[in-house]
């Protein structure tokens, strides 16, 4: 374990995990002096009946300030203002966010407005803009992937001005993260698969990118181990509550990890595919993960090799030579994607051209790869990637990922080789 | 990996560690809306020049340090807390920096209760409310730190104050604050920190989050202890050790008390030896006892942070727990030139062993079987070798 | 009651020499960016993609030094001194303290490593930030000997891939334009 010359780590979220963790909601609210929480969620979550256990947990002990279930998939400042108005009208004093990344980002935005008593989010953009504790926020994730219950940043769009605003602040970390296995029980197989691979990608990038540190390392390894051990079970036997709880924990651990170590090119390219082709984030992550690891091998071969242990177990790690492990790690991830494809009846893609929408149309046509490559260079995550990428590099990675072929490592333009384990091209 | 049906985990403390970490303090305090800290420390830290380093790090910040209060001594008294509170108010401070060992942090935590609630009555905090809003509080660990700085605990005049909110907002670990120490002084806090981290992940209640922190703590200590002790000790090794120790406080705060640390606490109280020393001596013997006398034995995963990934994976599954304990045995025995490693060397009479065992027996007999506490103490007294898991 | 005068209040000192050093480095880098925007194709293109009101303020908290580079009315890239007064800053890059700036400008920490070490606090949109980091990296390869720059960037550009013109003439031009008025 390398102790870096410098690092920072923060995970100031009270985690409550369990098969009936939600039942502790009244206690959690009492501990933050809240008597009237507003529940924020989306139609999908509410339709799946997932607000019921929340309401039941609140019971008669806590008066709910109502349920706002109108968070759209592409939530923006307008939605946030609406919800803030509702919060004020109902005289709420805390927020319970039930849902995925979008719901949680929205809830964080609402929290800024109602805590700072403002109507203009613009005043709070960027580092250091928030200086005080906000109202209590309880995050209840309904997928096991984004890890946003553990992250300190909110990304909020302003459709009118066509920009995405970044709100990074420690004050945006939720007060509580509630990991309840019931909340992911009804998640369809394909969604379970790619959200888990999303968490897997967080952990793998966290372990190999520039801001890694002892705590992001140990949380990443733990997350990868839990995902590898439980992902197939979660996909094949949706009702397996142990697997569900394990995946929820893994996702939170991966969130803790990457929120502190940051992520690299896989996220940079993935964000751009999402922005241009509207592919769900986790789907991009599943496909790109092996490519990111491959591209950086000359810098992070040793680290990538170490990941063979949490991925494939002690035996597999021990029986491979150090210089074989990095490629075995990458192969293991490719195999995992193929297995998930089989297990989901072809819904889980292994390459970009296999990504289709509900009607079976290809979502990432080859022609847009060049646009994606351009856009990805401007993504903040590129800073933390071990190796540089220019337009041609990004395009090369995208083309290979589109076809589903491994990278030709001879063609990667490499900076100084810093990995202690040399991997042959 | 074990995931209990229900668990809670919380770490309030942000860690900022490494080169020029101290210089971040003015910025960090300002981003918590405060500008004038009171520094709570002891004479030793001031004599070693640590206060000067901190003041220099404040250079160019344009801010003012309310005062450097160095009235913390080897015993944490209410008087020192009240003195600090008087100074805090007189200077119009709005935040607290504790620099030094656990006593500095304990004093600072109690001070924080007084100034945040505008009172001089510490006793009113007998039970602490959940949702306390305390002043921004930064801890700067030094080579005197025990790990309790980052914990939920404060002890003043023998009374314990405990709350999640008493964890510092930030622990700033800067290599310049980690002065070289004598061998025993380096070894003992590290071994106690490790004992607590090991105990946390060998208990039934272990969960993956606290395990992650425990593994990081154990690994940092195992990898850096020898280098920090031998040949003058490198700065990097001391930084690794200080990180491991700071993280152990978080782990300890999230785990139920284990039999080893309960015994160490009792024994220290009854014999006047330091807790560190008692914990260090008891560590391998507690593990050995668990290995041979409890059903669940010791988790194989313990070997991972103790021996590193290569050796962990090379070991047969059934052997891992055993090897982990053996490794820790070797580690502690290897220190026998510098510290006592048996209770016999401390000349503790037999009747004290018995009364110590009796004091903790009730809380742990269910888990560890009757007479377990005494067996651990006896084994530590005699300095029994590693049993290899055989009775 | 204890005598509180035993514990005096402490005002923070100054770090004048370090501030002067960073101020000089910022001046050089600022001038060099302006120069490179005339000479280097890539830098020119990067600036071309930035909006017309682009104005970057790179400065050290809490009280400087700093430098401003932005586009003037005619869209020309110019080094605009240190004073942000009256200028509309679109990208605000703050180094949290003077020691962080020293680490960066003695090239112990590259821009990327400094970001990874959380030494910078940036307000402004992310694409602009990324473009500016790329520009800084290119300018560094002009200004500094390879042995130093290769510490500061992840991948030093292969000189063989550059035209001889860019390699030598470009360097000379950037130097000349940086240090003459």
Report on the structure:
The complex is a heterotrimer of chains A (425), B (391) and C (181). With 425 residues, chain A is α/β, with parallel strands linked by helices. Chain A has 16 helices and nine strands. In chain A, helix 6 runs parallel beside helix 10 and helix 7 runs antiparallel to helix 8 (241-261). The radius of gyration of chain A is 21 Å and the shape is globular. Chain B is α/β, with parallel strands linked by helices and 391 residues long. In chain B, helix 6 (183-202) packs antiparallel against helix 7 (208-229) and helix 9 (259-271) packs antiparallel against helix 10 (275-293). By secondary structure, chain C is α+β, with helices and mostly antiparallel strands. Chain C is built from seven helices and six strands, in the order βααββββααβααα. At the A-B interface, strand 1, strand 2, helix 7, helix 8 and helix 13 of A face strand 1, strand 2, helix 7, helix 8 and helix 12 of B. Strand 4 of chain B pairs antiparallel with strand 1 (10-11) of chain C.
From the structure above, extract its key features:
heterotrimer, A: 425 residues, alpha/beta, Dehydroquinate synthase-like, alpha domain, two-stranded antiparallel sheet, 48% helix, C: 181 residues, Nonspecific Lipid-transfer Protein, Chain A, five-stranded mixed beta sheet, 14% strand
Biggest interface, chains and residues, is: A-B, 54 and 50 residues
What radius of gyration of chain C results from the CA coordinates? 18 Å
Superfamily (CATH H level) name of the largest domain in chain A: Dehydroquinate synthase-like - alpha domain
User: What is the CATH third-level topology name of chain C?
Assistant: Nonspecific Lipid-transfer Protein, Chain A
Shape of chain A: globular
Structural Rg of chain A: 21 Å
- Provide a count of the helices of chain C: 7
Name the CATH architecture of chain C. Answer: 2-Layer Sandwich
Number of strands of chain A: 9
CATH architecture of the largest domain in chain A: Up-down Bundle
Fraction in beta strands of chain A: 5-15%
Largest sheet of chain A: 6 strands, parallel
The domain count of chain A comes to 2
